[in-house]
Amino acid sequence: MTRIVLPGGEHTLREPVVWERPAGPPQSRIVYAAAHVVADPLGDNTPGSPAAVDWDATLRFRRHLWSYGLRVADAMDTAQRNMGLDWAATSELIRRSAAEAAEFGDPAALVACGAGTDHAPDAGTLDEVAAAYTEQIETVRGAGAGVIVMASRQLARIARGPEDYHAVYGKLLSQTDRPVILHWLGEMFDPNLAGYWGSRDVAEATASFLELIRGHAAAVDGVKVSLLDAEHEIGLRAALPEGVKLYTGDDFNYPSLIASGSHALLGIFDAIAPAASAALAALDAGDLARYEEIMAPTVPLSRKIFEAPTYNYKTGIVFLAWLNGHQDAFAMVNGAQAARSLPHLAEVFRLADAAGLLSDPELAVRRMRSLLEVHGL
Fold first, then answer.
1. Bridge pairing between strands 111-115 and 146-149
2. What are the tens digits of pLDDT across the range 32-42?
3. Which of 181, 228, 271, 315 could potentially form a cystine with 340 if both were Cys, beta carbons 3.0 to 4.6 Å apart?
4. Which residues of 210-241 are buried (b: 16+ CB within 10 A; e: fewer)?
5. pTM value surpassing 0.85
6. Whose CA is closest to 253, among 229, 223, 289, 277?
7. Other CB atoms within 10 Å distance of the CB of residue 72
């Protein structure tokens, strides 16, 4: 048996789980894994520097996700948008990811990319925000990927009420050539987005959101909601117009929400793709007990990775990718590998092992020991 002494005591690893790759994508749900980017360990990825990306490893990881039947949501918050991934690197990521997807099938079906306004931090009018959105949407469309309209810090800063959100989004949705996904990202993921859709009252914001969607339902494929509130999501899902999907972004309650009817667009699926794929295959087969058996141990892992401050979850995602050999270094753009403590990462290690998500225990132990040594342990 493989053992390691971690902060808090010795840990004995379980036998590795061999997760079979599916014959195809899930049939009962549409599922996106929001993917991280791999930093170039020799690049200047110190805080505030332009992102230096290891493109080979970044694209290799997307192939890993596709191999488990999952779609990829790219250039999203999991890829460190607004937290180190600048527009130059983002636009290149969009082009490269869509081109890579073309080797597997239709890029528009395999990858959807975030379009926002982060390249225009000084946008001060609604027209300027709409123009910034349009530029990024055209970049995504030009690459051949699906469009996810991300929440905008710039719009959140200048909007006076729901009518301003409707003015900007209404303009975007009236000119789309194919349905898009709208993203409602809660302030636990980005405090700059407090009061999105025109109110800090969630019920009022939801009413505004639904009014927008109902007015443009043909242009909306679905909505991705990341509020970590299962009851709210179920109510919103029931209120959506026919044909508009709910993609859960709830990294705390995803098993029950998916089982009850939500589709998914989740950062945690970056880390748990093999298990998630097997669980979704069980759900397709009508084996709810097996679905729940696989998903259950991933929830404590996800809740640990996404614990407050939630926006630092990317560190745990990249940490697990490193432990599993998907990248050669535990390095992140903007130096974000320092955003979680060693005890936090040690618990992520334990919980990933419990969920059968350390594919090569000996490699994981070697890498964890090297991290412990750096910290003087």
1. parallel
2. 999 999 999 99
3. 315
4. bebbeebeebbbbbbbbbbbbeebbebbeebe
5. yes
6. 229
7. 28
